[in-house]
Design goal:
Layout (H helix, E strand, L loop, with lengths): L14 H9 L7 E11 L2 E10 L7 E7 L3 H8 L3 H11 L11 E7 L3 E7 L7 E2 L8 H17 L15 H25 L8 H9 L1 H9 L4 E3 L8 E3 L6 E3 L6 E3 L1 H12 L2 H21 L7 H25 L5 H17 L9
Antiparallel strand pairs: 1-2, 2-3, 3-5, 4-5, 6-8, 7-10, 8-9
Length: 356
């Protein structure tokens, strides 16, 4: 019988716990010591540990995700079961997703007892994690866009596949309902806290977006569906040593949606405004070309640009909500991503692309 690996706090990451993880791979390997290197609290509690064992195949650097120790973040993420979603992603979907991901060592979720995800630290494979406020250059951006296009093309129009129905199920509907119910107070609080990071002229359309969020979400979903990451900023990327290859972290928000939404979220948050303005048409064209090469038909560039503009508004909202809730991201990182997203929304008049 599979033993539980579920824990609630960093101090629960003991030798006995690590042995349970190791036993899933090699029962002959013995854990000697567990050293907690770092703890970061945000939407989840993220713990880097070094596990001393006598095995030859298993990594020693582990990255463990637990429910957040910050009560506000935990309340926001508990009902939509975000960490549970990531655990299920690694258990059921990760093997067929054609992008680079961390190696999963163990993943378990149990209703009422929480979720625990154990990944190999990307540094074990010469990987380097990005910072949320890191600004990517054009060559890095092309690499990410190309992976997103291959990822989206692989799952294009699979929303009704029985293996993927849970991605559009009751938990996702609950998340959308909760987001719409809280949209106005969170937007008001976020705009106030953001101060000069958001031009005053965006306040009125942002609040109108929040009031009509349910209608906006239906509009943004009215397009061919594919599997999307839904949280594609720099902090959820990692790179090989020379930054010639990108990988994707944090699959808590994975779902079915419109592929260009990932592109909009990425370009709005991961590029500085000058780089984005100079290259966004080029990157959108490249994205469209790769989808077409994969057999996706009916990709019209003008329509893609319109949908890209519309989806920029969600990237803006996501950063504002993160600030309003608090404790989910480093404040300076959050404010920088808000500035970038606000600049993109303002420059492309993104709110006018919505049916409001």
């Amino acid at each position: 019988m599979k033993r539980t690996i579920l824990v609630r706090k960093p101090s629960d990451l003991t030798v006995a716990w690590a042995q349970q993880v190791v036993n899933q791979h090699d029962s002959n390997t013995v854990v000697k010591n567990v050293d907690v290197l770092a703890v970061e609290v945000g939407t989840t509690t993220r713990v880097r540990v070094m596990v001393d064992h006598n095995g030859k195949k298993l990594p020693r650097g582990w990255f463990v995700k637990l429910p957040s120790l910050a009560w506000r973040a935990r309340m926001i993420t508990a009902l939509p079961r975000l960490l549970h979603t990531e655990v299920r992603f690694y258990n059921e979907l990760a093997h067929c997703v054609p992008v680079t991901k961390p190696v999963c060592l163990a993943a378990q979720s149990q209703f009422g007892r929480g979720s625990t995800l154990v990944l190999a630290d990307v540094a074990e494979f010469a990987g380097v994690a990005s910072s949320p406020r890191e600004s990517l250059d054009i060559s890095q951006s092309q690499l990410v866009i190309e992976q997103l296009a291959r990822f989206h093309g692989h799952f294009w129009n699979t929303v009704h596949h029985p293996n993927y129905r849970w991605l559009s199920g009751s938990v996702r509907r609950l998340e959308d309902s909760l987001g719409s119910a809280l949209a106005v107070p969170l937007m008001k609080r976020g705009l106030q806290l953001a101060g000069t990071a958001i031009p005053a002229r965006l306040h009125k359309p942002a609040l109108r977006y929040a009031r009509y969020r349910r209608k906006v979400m239906k509009f943004l979903a009215a397009a061919p569906q594919t599997l999307i990451h839904h949280d594609c900023h720099s902090g959820n990327l990692f790179w090989n040593s020379d930054k010639s290859h990108a990988g994707f972290l944090d699959w808590q928000l994975v779902r079915m949606g419109e592929g260009v939404s990932d592109v909009a979220y990425f370009l709005a948050t991961a590029l500085n405004p000058d780089t984005r303005q100079k290259h966004e048409l080029e990157l959108l064209t490249r994205y469209s070309q790769i989808l077409s090469n994969q057999g996706v038909i009916g990709i019209d560039t003008a329509f893609l640009i319109q949908r890209y503009r519309a989806h920029l508004t969600y990237a803006f909202e996501a950063m504002i909500v993160t600030l309003a809730v608090g404790g989910m991201m480093d404040l300076e990182h959050n404010l920088e991503l808000i500035r970038r997203a606000a600049t993109a929304v303002d420059a492309l008049d993104a709110f006018s692309a919505l049916p409001l």
